[in-house]
Design goal:
The protein has 219 residues and is an alpha+beta fold. The protein is 29% helix and 21% strand. It has two domains: 34 residues; 182 residues, no CATH class. The strands form five sheets. The protein has a three-stranded antiparallel β-sheet with strand order 1-2-3, with no helix packed on it. A three-stranded antiparallel β-sheet has the order 9-10-11, with no helix packed on it. The longest helix has 32 residues.
Amino acid sequence: MRKRSSIVTFPILILALLLFIACSNSKRINNISKPETGSFTDPRDGKIYKTVKVGDLWIMAENLAYKPDNGKFWVYENDENNIEIYGYLYNWETAMNITPDGWHLPSRKEWRALQKTLGAKMSTFPYLEKIYPKLVDGGSSGLNMLFGGMRTCDGEFKYLGDKARFWNSDNSGSEKAVYGLNRNKDGIPHGLRGSKAPYTFNNGYQKTCPGYSVRLFKD
């Protein structure tokens, strides 16, 4: 009788263990898919920005759309309708000087911390490509990064819907000044910069002329 009881009890324990693991995984997935969110009202113009917490970092979930009194900034193709969606494009110096109190332009180190929190254990292609779906619009991180294009040094507006460029705060020419995302057209990779993987690159020699988007991190 005791032997039969043991035979019945063992499968029940296994089933209970499997259910516990399933519930734990479900909670973990739900936590990832529902990040903590908030908002920030810029006291300078009253604009309200969505914010999201990724790990220990609070980040604006929208591109900066503040119109400064001075500096170099542009609206993509001079179409005012693009401001609400993509914000302004700024040159690096202007981007460094228009942050509201309590917020700042992120460093390359902070971008790396963000990537690590999202699951990229190393800053190498396979890991970065894996977190790409989390970063873009509709991704589980809540950052909703849009492909807002850029303004080139020649004054052209390019790559709306295909590329996103965000300024870093790093001031040394040897540092990586830009954080980039590319949409991989038709799923065909054509090198790291054309694949679905975020990356940083050096644009220090051009900081005065191109216009890129700005995402701010909380102090």
